[in-house]
Structures are given as C-alpha cells and as structure tokens.
Design goal:
With about 375 residues, the protein is an alpha/beta fold. About 50% of the residues lie in helices and about 10% in strands. Bound molecules: guanosine-5'-diphosphate. Guanosine-5'-diphosphate binds next to helix 8.
C-alpha cells in the first residue's frame, strides 16, 4: 500500500493506493473488503473531478486525461498530452489578462462619470479588443483539423459489386479483413475498422455493392450501405476502370446526393484501363490498383485534403474539443459586439456587458466559471475510476 499525504497526491487529498496481483478474484476480494469497511466505488471521472476541485488541475487539463485515454492515434495522444500539460490554459491566460485590463479601464471610467472616455482611448481599446478577437478566432479555426484528431473521420467505400471495394478496404487496412471473390454480391453487410491516416483516426467502412437485386439479404445490405453513405464524412466512390460505366454506377452517383466524395478508379494494373470519367466531375479522382497497392498513398493524401484535415503543422496546438471551440467562438462574438458599441460611442456599461460575458465564456474553458451542472455532464463522459 502506498500512502500519499495531502496535498501531494493526484487529487490533492490523503490517498491510499493498493497494489495487488491482477487476478479478478483477488481484486474483487479487496474491493468487497473495502466496501464492507465503508468505502465507496468511484464514479465516472471522480478522481479528476476531485483533482479539479482541489486546484490540482484545471478543467481543460482534466478533459485532456479523458482524451488521452480515448486517443486512437499518436497525433491525437500528443495533442491531449499538450493540453494536459496546460498549454491551452497557458495560451488563454494572457488573452484573459488583456480582457481584464480593458474591463478595468472601462469600469474605472464608469466610476468617475464626469470623465467620459476620451475618443483616443476608446480607439485604442477597440484596437486591443480587435486583435484579441482575432487571436480567439485563430485558436477556434484550429478546430477544423483538431476535431478530426479527437473524434475521427467516417469514410465509407461505396460502389457497385465487383469494382474492388473489399480489395481496397483490405489494402488500406493492410490485411485481409473482408472476403474478396470474383462473385458479385459477396459483401452483404457493412464492415468497419479504424485506420490511421496522417494521424487522423479514420473509421473505414466497406459496404455491400449497390445494385438492383431480388436477393433479400443483399437488399438489406444495400440499405445499410446507403445509411453508411449518408452518415459518412467522406465517401470513396469506387468504379472499375476497365469495364466502362454501368447503370448501377450512375445509380450510386445519384445516391451520393450532397455527400462529399472522391472518385476512386480501380484496376489500374489491367489493360484497357481508363482513368477519366467526366460524367462524375467536378469530383476529384484518384487511380488505384487495390490489388497491387498502387495509388493508395495518393488516395490517402486526397482523402485528408478533401476532409480539410491537412492544414496543420506538427507544432501547432489544436483545439480538439467542441465545447472549447464553442466557447472560443461565442467569446469572440461577444467581444465583436462590444467593439461595435465602443465605436458607436455607447455607454461604458453597455460595452462592459459583452466583455464580461466574454470573460465568463473563456473562464468556462478552464473551469473557473463552469456551473456544477455542466461539470457533472462533462465528468459523466469519463471512465469510472479516472
Ligand atoms: P467488391 O465486390 O467491390 O468488394 O470487389 P472485390 O474487392 O471483391 O473484387 C472483385 C474482383 O475484382 C476480385 O476478383 C478482385 O480480385 C478483383 N480486383 C479488385 N481490385 C483489383 C485491382 O486493382 N486489379 C485487378 N486486376 N483486379 C482487382
């Protein structure tokens, strides 16, 4: 047993850690004994919540623990570690400081009513606020890439039977997961696996070939394929470059509707291969041989491009959490409104409303101003005992 005296423990409280052999029986006996003596099982995220309430972590750091546990790629884990080390909070701190300074200047102008804020000063404050809003917008913009890292992207392979969807699925997975035969209609259900494309966890789904068929099982598979297409962030629409287009290819093209898609022209290794299909333009197209693995790098590159997930430098700190993104946008909006009021020479009280809101919103990222309701919602998304 290891005893950690407050405040030198993870939660900041007195803690006793029991190390034991991992057999479920031994663990169960110890837990039962602890419970019998009046102990309680921890709830989801309870340790992190306790660390937060004792000032050991701020909220964005606690959330990073959850993200680190759930990270599916190195790049996602690296971002979570940076947030856990306080980089997001540290980046926000000077911005909050600027906002506080502006608030204090305006508050003191309110106190001394006779001294109206001189025009020059209000111009200077507006300029300060404008560059602050710009920085917040720039941070929020990194969510374009950041959200893929944390939540992953859903990519669906679709096409008529026998164009090589399962072969492509297996090649991208680098193993034989789906059954490949020359009989059309072999894949009757959707199959999903997660792969790592340039650090983005991609949930790749192979679907049943879409065609008109009397087969009942195949029809259910086709319905599932259509759902996977509708649900996808990106569809890889596969056609056979050696056989010419068929009515089924056009049927699938119509079913793609508003979905984002790349045209994947397969069987590049075969004679008579044609790579251009102006009927499906302006979709970007990539020629591949799923069998030999040609063109897969280009395909991955094009997929990441199409998702808009390529424009970040390895050194960038990214906003990966929708909650943080939302708070950054809202706080920048509030500052924008305050700038408008300042420029229209509204009273300081009015300008201050938006600025105080912005400060509260930024504080909610690190947890200073987060309500208990929201805190319990956030910690409910944690694992038990973390
Ligand atoms: P699906 O029905 O669209 O999933 O297609 P499959 O992956 O099952 O492939 C159908 C047939 O096409 C199989 O006989 C594959 O070996 C063949 N095939 C798939 N990709 C290629 C390729 O790039 N080149 C060649 N020559 N044959 C391929």
């Amino acid at each position: 047993m290891t005893y950690m005296r407050s405040p030198n423990s993870f939660t900041g409280e007195d803690m006793l850690e029991i190390s034991c052999h991992g057999s479920p029986v031994v663990v169960r006996r110890i837990i039962d004994l602890v419970l019998k003596e009046g102990g309680q099982l921890a709830g989801a995220g309870e340790f992190s919540l306790r660390a937060l309430s004792h000032g050991k972590l701020d909220l964005s750091q606690a959330e990073a623990i959850r993200d680190l546990i759930n990270a599916q790629t190195e790049a996602a884990a690296r971002q979570a570690v940076r947030q856990l080390n306080g980089e997001l909070s540290n980046k926000l701190q000077p911005l909050k400081q600027i906002l506080i300074e502006v608030i204090v200047r305006l508050e003191s102008a309110v106190e001394f009513v006779e001294d109206d804020l001189p025009a020059l000063q209000s111009k200077e404050l507006a300029a300060k606020l404008r560059s602050l809003a710009l920085e917040l917008d720039q941070m929020a913009a990194t969510f374009d890439v950041g959200h893929w890292l944390r939540s992953g992207a859903k990519v669906t392979i679709a096409g008529r039977p026998n164009v090589g969807k399962s072969s492509l699925f297996n090649s991208l997975l680098r193993r034989d997961r789906a059954i490949v035969t020359h009989f059309p209609g072999t894949t009757r259900d959707t199959l999903s696996e997660t792969i790592n494309i340039r650090g983005i966890p991609v949930s790749l789904t192979d679907t049943a070939g879409v065609r008109k068929t009397p087969d009942e099982i195949e029809t259910i598979g086709i319905e599932r394929a259509q759902m996977a297409i509708a649900d996808a962030d990106l569809v890889l629409f596969v056609v056979d470059g050696t056989s010419g287009l068929t009515e089924d290819d056009h049927l699938i093209f119509r079913k793609l509707g508003a979905s984002k898609f790349l045209l994947v022209v397969n069987k590049l290794d075969q004679p008579g291969f044609a790579s251009r299909y102006p009927q499906f333009e302006p979709a970007k197209s990539v020629s591949v041989s799923a069998l030999r693995g040609d063109g897969l790098e280009e395909l991955c590159e094009a997929a990441i491009d199409e998702l808009g997930a390529n424009n970040f430098e390895a050194g960038d700190l990214l906003v990966t959490d929708a909650r943080h993104y939302d708070l950054l946008c809202k706080s920048s909006e509030q500052i924008g409104e305050a700038i408008c009021l300042l420029e229209r020479e509204a009273t300081e009280e009015l300008v201050l409303v938006g600025l105080n809101n912005a400060l509260t919103l930024l504080g909610a990222i690190t947890g200073e101003t987060t309500s208990n309701d929201i805190l319990s919602q956030i910690f409910a998304t944690f694992c038990i005992g973390k």
